[in-house]
Amino acid sequence: MGVGVDAHSIILAKSKSYMNESGGPIKALASFYSVEPSKIIVLHDELDIPYAAIRTKVAGGDNGHNGLKSLTSSLGTADYFRVRLGIGRPMGQQDPGDFVLKQFSKEEKKTLDEFIDRGADCVEFLIDNGLDLTQSKFNS
Predict the structure, then answer these.
(1) Which of 41, 108, 122, 136 would bridge 104 by S-S if both were Cys, CB 3.0 to 4.6 A apart?
(2) pLDDT at 7
(3) What is d(CA 80, CA 59) in angstroms, rounded to the nearest whole number?
């Protein structure tokens, strides 16, 4: 699982828990397979990035993202890779907590499949090429 490993050693997992409680299950999976946090890649929504933009980084704060907060707390470190999938900020006074749970707009749905494909391509590229090249290619 993660960067710099044989392609046959990758574990792709989606937690069945709520995003805000995903740290425990991810920690359990990583422990079971003896995966170091530095080899984990997490994909998550990001309010501070425009819709359909992708950014990659390693480590950092949770920026108010409760799923990252849970994961960092469970792992005991923030030193894991992040593929940040932009959803943009809500318009006006809409609560960010409500915004992240709403359906995509008609306009967003038109490009959603392409966005998902680029996110998957980004993860694959990160595994094969490391962070620096991935940032050069995907961080726009």
Answers:
(1) 108
(2) 53
(3) 5
Residues in the chain, pLDDT under 70? 1-8, 140
Residues sharing a CB contact under 8 Å with residue 50, sequence separation 6 or more, in sequence order:
86, 88
For the chain, give every domain's residue range. Answer: 7-138
Enter the CATH code of domain 7-138: 3.40.50.1470
Residue 83's nearest CA partner among 36, 35, 29, 131 is: 131
pLDDT in tens, 33-68: 999 999 999 999 999 999 999 999 999 998 889 999
Its pTM stands at: 0.88
